[in-house]
TrEMBL record:
Residues 504-642 form the Guanylate cyclase domain. Keywords: Membrane, Transmembrane, Transmembrane helix. The chain crosses the membrane at residues 386-408, 415-433. This is Adenylate/guanylate cyclase domain-containing protein. PROSITE patterns: GUANYLATE_CYCLASE_2. InterPro entries: A/G_cyclase (IPR001054), Adenylyl/Guanylyl_Cyclase_3/4 (IPR050697), CHASE2 (IPR007890), Nucleotide_cyclase (IPR029787). It comes from Nitrobacter vulgaris. One of its GO terms (molecular function) is adenylate cyclase activity.
Amino acid sequence: MKAATRLRSTLRVRTMLAWARLRRLTRNKNLRAVGAAIATLVLLTSLRAYDPRIVTELKERTFDTYQRLKPRAYTDLPVRIVDIDEASISEYGQWPWPRTRLAALTRRLADLGAGVIAYDVIFSEPDRTTPSRLVDDLRDSGAPDLDQTMKLLANLPDHDQAFADAIGKTGVVLGFAATRAANDNRPPGRAGVAFVGVNPTKVLAPFHGTVSSLPIFNEKAAGIGGINLSSLDRGGIVRRVPMVFSDGVSIYPSLAIEALRVAQNQKSIIVRGTGASGDSDTGHDALIDMRVGAFKLPLTSNGESRIYFSRDRPQRYVSVKDILDPAKEATVKPLIDGAIVLVGASAAGLMDSRATPLGGPVPGVAIQAQLIEQILAQDFIERPDWTNGLEIVLTVLFGALVAGLVLMFGARFSFYAGVVGFVAGLAGSWIAFSQFRLLIDPIFPSLAALAVYIAVERVLHVASDREKKFVRQAFGQYLAPELLTQLENSPQGMRLGGESRDISVMFMDVRGFTPISEALTATELVDFINTLLAPLSDAIQDELGTIDKYIGDSIMAFWNAPVDVSDHATRACQASLKMRAALGALNDADVFGFSARGFDDSRVKIGVGINAGLACVGNMGSQRRFNYSAMGDVVNVAARIESASKALNVDLLVSEDVARRVKGIALLEAGEILLKGKSRPTKIYAIAGDDTMAGSPEFAELKRHHGALLTAIKTGEGPEATVALARCQELAGEDMQDFYHRLAEQITSLHAT
């Protein structure tokens, strides 16, 4: 008893070896997939936190698309561009014009009622046409009558002075350009700048020099502002414009802010940054917003304003030619009266154009105008600092979610779920922009999720290939192709290594194999076995059976392991019927050549026994060599039933356990036999045919007479048994005749007694 227990324990340990290996493969596969997901997320999250140019450009391109889909609606606000256009150049000659013409333009705009005049032009050099410059040129030329000419010119007004006088008599704002090139040229500040919270000089990137208008003009100007349309380190598409500048000591507003300040007769502007009362501490110095008189605008952390562009409209522009034409006063006065007027150039030759998110170059002065428009309309797009943190969190969440979905539900479901998630994220981002003017990037988190999906799926794919290779090596020789494919696709569904399963077991043996083997040479015997077992094995595998082993001329097979087969008992019976049909075809064609060689019994016969019940299944053997097999009482009973088939003269026998489970199989009770090792008789049944036969009226009649026959034999009523036997032989097929011949012998014994 102890020896048997030790043997069973040893076998169970060995049967678990293959399953343990497969579980390690699966476990390692999931661990590797999780590791790949974590590594990918760490890399991408770090990339997003560092925010390199390529990531920033990807976000900005997304936001550009939003603006193209829904640009800012244009409304006719009191902002006008007095345009140095092609018509003006054609009328007044090439640029730069004499400052006297600019003085006339300034006075004309004041007469038309301009609220403020802002020049998006820098007058950094003296007018070359001014009389004083001509005097110097004539002095060096040695021309005749020089003294008289110089006296005449000296009495003419100075052009720069004329322009300066015009600037001083009207509210004019001039511009300067901040540069990285160092110089001592600093324009005088006109606006007072107050700040709440952090000092802007600690946040703003300092400029080292400027290009500004001549002091004669700056001294007369009501305001001076920066005209840079991008920070000192960025070019390309204009999306944000600096609103405040600093040289590290002083603070200067932009041209648009100065124009708005002067138009409201304000003395100063207020800049609010982190650290202000009522604001949460973000952990770093940043600007938040600024106020110019009655208007407030949000700022990026480094003092820029994002522009929400509208389409470039001709309604914004008034040609200088029309302004200086007295005949058109009635047309231009309603446009200029009370407006913030920006003087700039759209003429192609002056090279003052910029690209915007809406596409196509626009004059730089138009961007200044749109800045003022959105401040007046209080219609801004914003990207607060917290959006960066939100996008990093979304990157991690989306990536982790996709990794979890792939591990739990597989690649296909996860792909579709990812598509739905991407669409939902894109929709949420669009709603945030279109309804709340917030810019939240959906692209990078989605791309991160895609990268995690690819990484995890790739790891799982490689691991699955290993699993499939292992499954094919371990089961390919004795598992049906359909089950092998199922096993490859879902190896985690197996339960190997000594597991108790409800299975159906079949044993098949060749009748009269000894005389056959004695009549054949060794080579002929091998050919005979291979020719016979091949179609019989196919019949088993066609019905999803697992071939356990070949034992000489015998086959052991079972169903419902290692992969579930719900109707395993019926499948086993159908396989036996297919084996009967296949063998009949081989015999009819004399494939083995026994009839041609004159054998007394030229037809090969088999016996099949089938039982169903609980058995221990698993890979049994050593680490180097093992076989997936079943063991237990259900296996022994199946073998005994197969042995009993010879004595009963019937080729296909099943146990009562099988008979209770099957559907669509024509079964006839074959009596009760005492199997070896059993203390009580076991009822067995013969397989008479398939579902077609089972549902026929003839079989119902046969079954009724067959029952009467067995009853008569049990009760010893010979005459009644003889009548029932005759009727059974008449109704039964050829495959059952030998069985009834055997019962006829029992009836003969009854008559003898």
